[in-house]
Amino acid sequence: MREHALYPLAGKRVWVAGDRGLVGSALVRRLASEDCDILTSPRECIDLRSSVQVDRWVRQARPQAVFLAAAKVGGIYANNMRPGEFIYDNLMIAANVIDAARRHHVEKLMFLGSTCIYPRLAPQPMPESALLTGPLEPTNQWYAVAKIAGLKLCEAYRQQYGCDFISVMPTNLYGPGDNFDLLSSHVVPALVAKAHHAKVDRKETLVVWGSGEPLREFLFVEDAADGLVFLMKHYSSDQTINLGTGSEIRIADLVDVVARVVGFAGTICYDGSKPDGTPRKVTDVSRINALGWRAATPLEEGIRRTYAWYTEHLDLIRERERKRA
Ligand code: GFB
Question: Can you give the C-alpha Rg of the chain in angstroms?
């Protein structure tokens, strides 16, 4: 790891926008060891879709650095079923936070994109240069368009106003604090919850969506937070940068790992009425590796830690699901 940061965080006022989400909460945990002042904006007090509220908050809180980890996120089903929310909320959050950061002279801002914004049939592993070279995956095009707009806003503000705003492309994330609701979650938490309930309820079968054939890359969220802090300190460019492991796994093989960790020994069946999404999605991590960062947590260990968190927080998870219903 590098010693000398381009942008040291020590002594800075650092705003984690989206601090209750999967990535934001991991960022808050990771930043605790950076000797900075962590700022969070409670969801009850500030709606990031409101430019007035965001502007007022940034003016009063005066962050020097911003991690823009707030977003309307969800798995393949939620993306497909709620296109309006996924495009509108994400466009507004990106525009409001990035523009308030410019107006109130934030020194450095990091916007989080997502690897699902690369073209559906991008070359694999996907280099950063694949962005905007082909049609998007239809199931998440709404989210992708909003995220691409956020990325381009950072690039435009860098060019026109000289803002040190960067964007990062994290791959599929999972870990403690994830959303385990079956209709809106991503595949890892969904499989953890399904396998757990199948085991506890002594069910014979576990239903997996799609064909089981798609390939995905998964990054443990504590590693992701570490990578984001690393990039905040060491990266400054108008070009986005991938954050991933560079390894991929078939969904059917992921199911085996989750079943082993959870202790579900029944039958797996596939529900072909649910979409597969993009066939393959693995990042080219050569640029971040060359800077001196790589992911540390093997998939099975990450899933073990995620399952441990899940079983310890079942009451909280039920409460969240009750509120969502
Ligand atoms: O994680 P996931 O919802 O997102 O699905 P994407 C990954 C794969 O797992 C798909 C399959 O092929 C799903 O069909 N899968 C199998 C399941 N069983 C399940 C299940 O029970 N739940 C879920 N959710 N999937 C998302 C994008 O795409 O990636 C978002 O829609 C976001 O925009 C995210 O960017 C990172 O990888 O397909």
Answer: 19
pLDDT at 323: 80
Q: Distance from the CA of 7 to the center of ligand 1, in angstroms?
A: 35
The secondary structure of residue 134, as a DSSP letter, is: S
Residue 37: helix, strand or coil by DSSP? strand
Say if residue 309's pLDDT is above 60.
yes
Would residue 246 be called left, alpha or beta, if left means φ above 0 and alpha means ψ between -120 and 50 degrees? left
E strand or H helix at 304 = helix 299-312
Active-site option among 77, 143, 174, 307? 143
Has residue 2 got a pLDDT over 60?
A: no
Compute the Cα dihedral for 32, 176, 303, 313 and give only its sign: positive
Partners of 283 in the β-ladder: 126
pLDDT of residue 252 exceeding 70, the answer is yes
